[in-house]
Amino acid sequence: MLLARTNLHESAQAQQLARRYSGCWSTAGIHPHDSRSWTDSAAAAVYALAREPEVVAVGECGLDFNRNFSTPQEQEAAFSAQLALAAELSMPVFLHCRDAHERFLALLLPWLDKLPGAVVHCFTGSREEMRECVEHGLFIGITGWVCDERRGLELRELLVDIPAERLLIETDAPYLLPRDMLPKPASRRNEPAYLPHILTRIAQWRGEEAQWLEDVTDANVRRLFGVGF
Q1: How many domains does the chain have?
Q2: For 30-72, what is each residue's pLDDT tens digit?
Q3: Which amino acid positions bind a divalent metal cation 2, per UniProt (predicted)?
Q4: 136 is in an annotated binding site
Q5: Does the N-terminal or the C-terminal CB of the chain have fewer CB atoms within 10 Å?
Q6: Which of 33, 115, 120, 136 shows the shortest CA–CA distance to 78?
Q7: Residue 148, annotated ligand binder?
Q8: Three-state DSSP class for 97?
């Protein structure tokens, strides 16, 4: 299980949980929403966490021009700094991009040859944006968003165009509870335990066997993050 976090406090908590439980790993970084908190001391803290053996990626980092809880300038500064940090440590990056595709790629591409890998977490962009990401060697993370009949249909239609060797499947728990689960869970809180449901639905929409897709995406996780399970 990968515990992807969004700020310093959560990153430290996730690292401690990953140390406590076998089969768990974590990320360390600052989400674009919290980019205004990026300082020299924050950079030093992320750097220190990223050197811990349980931490396998830098992030969640990137750009989110949809809500702009931090200014675009603050987001770009924090994103660029975390890319530099990941490159220095030869670590993959766990990325966030919403309504910022062109600027996101403009900042990311100069670093790609210095990074061992990258995944665009919780991808919700267009088919063309997905193809651009894949052409540059990025992994595409798909969540239960695709199970939402209100806003996930466009994403569902492009699933077949994602190369299997570039696909990751995630929950984004506790967010994005799959809306098509039957019976519906009593709580609206998403959980890692619902990952098999998302996998089964994605395999169905891609026209693939669920076990085959599980094996392929597990191998992708091992290849990207360098973990063993």
Answers
A1: 2
A2: 999 999 999 999 999 999 999 999 999 999 999 999 989 999 9
A3: 96, 121
A4: no
A5: C
A6: 33
A7: no
A8: strand
